Amino acid sequence: MRQNHIKELDPFLRSLLYIIGGEIAIYVGRELLNSESEDITDEDITENIKGKIEGKDIDFEPDDLETLKLNTVRKTLYKLYSEKLAQFRRIRDKSTGWFIYYWWHEFDLLEEILLEKKKLIESKLRDRLQFEESNYFFICKNCQDSNIKYNFDEAFELNFRCSDCGSPLEAQENKPIIEFLKNKIVLIQKTKITLN
After folding, report:
1. CATH class in words for 11-105
2. 8-20, pLDDT tens digit by residue?
3. CA 142, 147, 149 angle in degrees (round to 5)?
4. Where are the chain's structural domains?
5. Interacting residues of 136 by C-beta distance below 8 A, sequence separation 6+
6. Distances (CA, A) of 191 to 8, 34, 62, 108, 194
7. Cβ contacts of 61 within 8 Å, gap of 6 or more
8. Which of 23, 45, 95, 159 could form a cystine bridge with 31, CB 3.0-4.6 A?
9. pTM over 0.90, yes/no
10. Where are the beta strands (DSSP E) in 98-174?
């Protein structure tokens, strides 16, 4: 039986859910949060959300007659699962042979998930910084698409001539990119992740 007291999502978690799956992820997140003491299926979540949006000007399926499809909720749940914010167990229904999925949230792991993402971003920034610092780049200033840059080996293979127009390739200064990356790394190192 559902509790009378409805729990609300933390504003930070609400923002993260929106980034992951849009407005529907917020509704799904609320359902998961408020079903902690009971088993809840994707079908239950869909029906609960439909009940809450009935009569409101909310339509998650603008190109369809339905306001919310089970498949939309399932896709959202799988997005949350892939971000480690939801888990499930499946049980085969003996009468139909179909699997029934029971879902629950992992919102209490949010801080660890964010720390993991922070490490991943820092690692990617460091890899890019190393790449920028260990390469010389060349561009063609005559071509429309001058954001194509060649590393030294590629430029050498082309005899320092643009593969499109034949103009000479010019060395590109990448110190601003290196400084930008260094600043981003410092910024991410200083960022503290603490949730209430």
Report:
1. mainly alpha
2. 888 888 988 999 9
3. 90
4. 11-105, 111-190
5. 151, 152, 171
6. 26, 31, 39, 20, 10
7. 67, 68, 69, 72
8. 45
9. no
10. 99-105, 137-139, 149-151, 170-172
